[in-house]
């Protein structure tokens, strides 16, 4: 699925990382941010965010439908997808756009591609209603897809969160579908796939290599 988002044209730089639960996004991004700071990037010029935001994560309907928390009442997944799009639009208006406008580097753990991957995996790829709702979101300057075999990701999640086979992120079927959706998105949209089998240090070194090259290219365009 080719995604259509908006070009931001601001002086800031938007960097996002996606991938299945346990791919190592948060760990690698921590090291990546440390590296850009140690190369001279001012810490105060970096805005670190995650998606979905707490607006979505703490919502009772989301918690009982997706996260198996609360009273177990199920809500309509299409409606919650629309909420997922609203959550991203809200975070962009309140936090991402103001930061990019003043030249900051915005680093986000997950992005709207996670919403797409989730619904692509569930609806066999047919989600035009969701992609249309998201057309005003910014196209990131760099999109990393962290990729590792589902067995490895599941193992990491169960060690981190405790074993719970009822959770989709500890099941081979859904994790394989999510991974395939990310790979399909990456191939169609030229995202940067990085193997996250290796330790987070190695993963962040590869992120740095891509970041330096993209920064160099963007300076040539000015
Ligand atoms: N490259 C790696 N090699 C081995 N273990 C890792 C690696 N990256 C992360 N881990 C470990 O695996 C667990 C999951 O990592 P992390 O939270 O960074 O993944 P994530 O993709 O952000 O997961 P989620 O989406 O579920 O939040 C953590 O306990 C972390 O210490
Ligand atoms: C619909 C939808 C679901 N998710 C999922 C992916 C993860 O399992 C969790 C987010 O938790 P994490 O703390 O970032 O691991 O929710 C999503 O991220 N976005 C969505 O739109």
Automatic annotation (TrEMBL):
Keywords for the protein's UniProt record, in alphabetical order: ATP-binding, Kinase, Nucleotide biosynthesis, Nucleotide-binding, Transferase
Highest taxon in the source lineage: Bacteria
Name of encoding gene: tmk
EC code(s) of this entry: 2.7.4.9
GO terms, molecular function: kinase activity
Biological source species: Cohnella soli
Residues annotated for ATP binding in this entry: 19-26
Pfam families linked to this entry: Thymidylate_kin
Reported function: Phosphorylation of dTMP to form dTDP in both de novo and salvage pathways of dTTP synthesis.
Protein name as annotated: Thymidylate kinase
Enzyme class: transferase
Top-level taxonomy: Bacteria, Bacillati, Bacillota, Bacilli, Bacillales
Catalysis: reaction(s): dTMP + ATP = dTDP + ADP
Domain Thymidylate kinase-like: 19-206
Family from the record: Belongs to the thymidylate kinase family.
């Amino acid at each position: 699925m080719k995604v259509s988002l908006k070009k931001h044209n601001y002086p800031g730089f938007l960097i996002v990382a996606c991938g299945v639960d346990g791919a190592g996004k948060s760990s690698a991004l921590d090291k990546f941010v440390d590296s850009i700071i140690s190369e001279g990037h001012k810490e105060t010029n970096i805005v670190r965010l995650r998606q979905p935001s707490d607006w979505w994560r703490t919502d009772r309907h989301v918690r009982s439908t997706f996260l198996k928390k609360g009273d177990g009442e199920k809500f309509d997944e299409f409606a919650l997808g629309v909420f997922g799009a609203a959550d991203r639009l809200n975070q962009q208006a309140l936090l991402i756009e103001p930061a990019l406008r003043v030249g900051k580097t915005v680093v986000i753990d997950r992005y709207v591609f996670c919403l797409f991957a989730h619904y692509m995996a569930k609806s066999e790829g047919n989600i035009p209603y969701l992609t249309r709702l998201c057309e005003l979101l910014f196209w990131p300057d760099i999109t990393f897809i962290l990729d590792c075999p589902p067995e490895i990701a599941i193992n990491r999640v169960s060690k981190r969160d405790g074993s719970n086979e009822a959770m989709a992120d500890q099941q081979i079927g859904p994790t394989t579908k999510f991974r395939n959706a990310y790979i399909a998105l990456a191939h169609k949209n030229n995202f940067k796939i990085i193997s996250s089998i290796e330790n987070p240090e190695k993963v962040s070194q590869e992120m740095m290599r891509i970041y330096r090259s993209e920064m160099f290219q963007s300076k040539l365009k000015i």
